[in-house]
Amino acid sequence: MTLRHLKIFVTVCETGSTTAAGEKLHIAQPSISLAISELEDYYGIKLFDRIAKRLYITEAGKKFLQYATHIVGLFEEMEREIKNFDATGIIRIGASITIGNYLLPGYITRFKKIHPQMDVKVIIDNSEKIQQYILSNQIDIGLIEGIVYSPYIAEHKFRDDELVMVCGNAHPFANQKNVEISKLQNESFILRESGSAGREIFDSTMTSLGIKILPAWESTSTQAIIRAVQANLGISVLPYLLVKDSLNRKEISQFHIDGIRFQRSFSVIYHQNKFLTESAKDFIALCK
């Protein structure tokens, strides 16, 4: 078993077929198939089920992929670092929308003061996608809200956060302190998309209380939600960091549900098999 075998396996997983992997790696398709067979024989496992001329990764293959992805990634990182030891390095950061909007710019500014030659690449997406990018080695470090689901991801909580209920200034709930939860069922909700950490917390809380909410609107854009709330088209629940400016300008109003608070944590995450460079450790230390 060699690094070449691992790279072929990872590429087959990425492309979905031995033919596409061969084209990407400039290797003949029979050599790709042979490398996969050699891996399976070496470890005594089936990496793929072959059904109707298509490949379907097995559970053993999924576990193997987690290790192979990071072994290949670590080797490629070593190649870049050693061959260009004095050149500019790259750190790849992923952040949820809330963190990316309000905290990440400050973290990167401070990081660049410590490592002025480092190039920082950033992806902003919802927390679920950021976890997927960690698992597929598309980013080195992630900053997310809410719960980590994969056992392959290491996490360190670094800050607490709260979601708040908001409505238009003309809405009957505006500035109310003890709105009964049962009254929410009669309201139109404008919510973030499924997969966002805030939406997940809100949905799970409502479900645990026996309240079923069917959103009238769903959006990946916080600003679109705020504008719709401002126009009194519905109510919403959003991170305080994302609505505090609108609240301070009195564009929208906050209200409280009797006996309920939506609290969560921000976490810095990375793959448990990831080799953390000194610059990566420095970035993590800045997250507070």
TrEMBL record:
One of its GO terms (molecular function) is transcription cis-regulatory region binding. InterPro entries: LysR_HTH_N, LysR_subst-bd, WH-like_DNA-bd_sf, WH_DNA-bd_sf. It holds the Pfam family LysR_substrate. The keyword Transcription regulation applies. The keyword Transcription regulation applies. Keywords: DNA-binding, Transcription, Transcription regulation. CDD domains: PBP2_CysL_like (cd08420). Residues 1-58 form the HTH lysR-type domain. Belongs to the LysR transcriptional regulatory family. This is HTH lysR-type domain-containing protein. It comes from Herbinix hemicellulosilytica. The lineage of its organism: Bacteria, Bacillati, Bacillota, Clostridia, Lachnospirales.
